[in-house]
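A reminder before we start the practical. When you read a complex entry, don't treat the lines as separate problems. The point of joint prediction is that each chain is placed relative to the others, so the output describes one connected object in space. Small molecules and nucleic acid strands, if listed, are placed in the same frame. In the example below there are two entries. Take a minute to note the order of the lines before looking further.
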Amino acid sequence: MASPPDTAAIGNALIGHLLADAALAALMPDGVFRDVARAGKQRYVIVSLVDAIDVATYDGRAIAQGLYLVKAVALNNAAAAEAAGARIDQLIEDQVWPIAPGLDLTTAYRVADLGTVTELDAVDPDLRWTHRGGRYRLDVAITYTRTLGSLVGRT
Amino acid sequence: MIKTGRYGNVKWDPTGATPPAATLVAVISLNKWKASFKTDKLDVTFFKDVNKVYIPGMKDVSGSVSGFWNSDELALFEAADAEIPGLLELIPNTTEATFFWSGLAYMDADIDCSVDGAPAVSGSFMAAGPWTLAGGTLLAARRAEKAA
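Here is the predicted structure of the whole assembly.
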């Protein structure tokens, strides 16, 4: 493999890991979305990449550190949002799941609790959205064989 | 030519064999090396000198390497335990691989394991024999070229 593996697989695997949990699906039946949910959804999980850093060694890209916002969002159902937030934490904190060849999750943990946030619906102020989740850091070891063929001898 | 340090490298042969018999292998998961070539300066100041005056003494060669702990390879820690010096090669940029410093060296090793990151390793070395710069033209040789 001449190029490092595509780190987009890290976020995809995180979403897949959350989607695969029956307990979370029962609490948030509308699914797990990247950044923005589809229109009309009322109980769902949002996953967003907040920040990311690649760490290099002489062997090439070695570690991908990603900070992900993961939160449950529910309309007029704070209890479901809070229960789902707790389930999200159980599914991520100190857990490991497969990502892709060349990408190995080494650690996953929460770095910030977002608390429970309530906001009024933008259209109907009688409706309340509850958000519950946290910011999670995922460290992924990257293994691949780098080639410098095009660089060697370049003047 | 100015090159990036991204393609630097550190190679090590624990047997201490010298080239061409040496079998140098890249130490994996390192991302920094540093070498120092400092020469002792001897104070030869006279009573009537208006400032201190020095002459060069013996050159010292030492330095450090650092990176991340990788359980696939323990070369750094094996080197720290070795009773004989190994051959160390320090390459600023592997796309210009004919330029490197090398020589016999003794190694020490450290590991720094923090809860919020990958365990970091570092090692320090000191010369155990003459060190040379391959591919470059050292000062004395350049002076000789200019004088010729």
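Discuss with your neighbour: Residues 8-142 of chain A form a domain with the STM4215-like fold (CATH 3.30.2000.30). What might explain this?
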